[in-house]
Fold this sequence. Notes:
Elements: H1 16-30, E1 37-38, H2 50-63, H3 79-91, E2 101-104, H4 107-113, E3 124-128, H5 132-140, E4 145-149, E5 168-172, H6 184-197, E6 200-204, E7 230-235, H7 236-240, E8 248-251, E9 257-259, E10 265-267, H8 268-279, H9 285-294, H10 297-323, E11 328-330, E12 336-340, H11 347-358, E13 360-361, E14 363-364, E15 375-379, H12 384-395
Parallel strand pairs: 1-13, 3-4, 3-5, 5-6, 6-7
Antiparallel strand pairs: 2-8, 7-8, 9-10, 11-12, 12-15, 14-15
Helix pairs in contact: 2-9, 3-9, 4-5, 10-12
The chain binds D-malate.
D-malate is lined by residues 41-43, 108, 131, 176, 237.
Amino acid sequence: MPKLNENYQNLKQSYxxxxxxxxxxxxxxxxxxxxxIRLGIGDVTLPxxxxxxxxxxxxxxxxxxxxxxxxxxxxxxxxxxxxAISAYYxxxxxxxxxxxxxxxDGAKSDTGNISELFSADNTILxxxxxxxxxxxxxxxxxxxxTYLSGNADNQFLPMPDSAVHADxxxxxSPNNPTGSVYSKAQLTEWVRYALENQAVILxxxxxxxxxxxxxxxxxxxxxxxxxxCAIEFCSLSKTAGFTGTRxxxxxxxxxxxxxxxxxxxxxxxxxxxxxxxxxxNGTSYIIQKGAQAVFSPEGMAQCQENIxxxxxxxxxxxxALRKKNIRFFGGIHSPYIWFECPNNMESWxxxxxxxxxxxxxxxxxxxxxxxGTRYFRLTAFGTHENTEEAMERFEKLx
Length: 398
Ligand code: MLT
């Protein structure tokens, strides 16, 4: 009889967005006449840009000719894409060595898999509320988590407590789910804390492309000393609409080394490389050609146009919340708007209320942690038409 990984018993029965999909399917089955508007999961609605499509086509064409056909590729990703991403960082005045970049199928997999590099006896700090993958992936391997309170008082941007030691720290900025963004001074404080504690920051920058204020950091590597203490995860899902196409990247600087028990120095870069080359056969060549096109100047300009489209939706949602006098966070440098549930409702109660009374699907804050119990998240990734209609319906409620 196999002995099972009983840590799975410590997880909620289903992943947050699977639970939402399940509830929406049940509602649709019993109300087939109702038109549902989905502003729940952060899934894009605009098609891929023409430049990305050209890149994908070029990839497909290469596969059709013996001279250019590709079989297994490098597990770390093709040099052409790692160079393009390094150049993208350079445009934002950040130096990242292409060799430190690992291409993957998205930040979800990498933020989930990275915990394999760390032993179970670390003190792991995870903000609450938070993207549930960080929590669930640590629970799956039996790791213990110390939560860091994000709340309205700290604008959902918890800061380090010098009295508390940590070994591993998860940060996401612009934040999923709250839309809050750390300033340069705040991230500097986190880096200083990590260096003092010899800790590693796992920094998720999947929403960096939504930042419009040049003073706000789009990468942890804008902070001095961060290459000695931070791994960065990013993705084309939100930047370029690749939620279904799947491509992301993780930067593991070679400077990240820590002594093992026997005193030998271990490199996180070498470990991640070993892990990826053992368990991952690389992102498809065709997808990487599409991603390369995204990082060209024309490709980026097109992505920015799409981002502006979603930012307009965020303003529509923010306006509706202002009209209803509901306090909210985010929605400026982020596609997410995080707000207090009206009438003191709990978030799953408000989820059901919104679904039943306005046929709008959002994401209950409780799915992101205890501090989200009375909060709710809407995404700006819908179409203009649906977002407008949803907000018209919303304004008629309570
Ligand atoms: C979300 O809605 O939180 C995200 O779309 C989930 C993800 O990126 O995996």
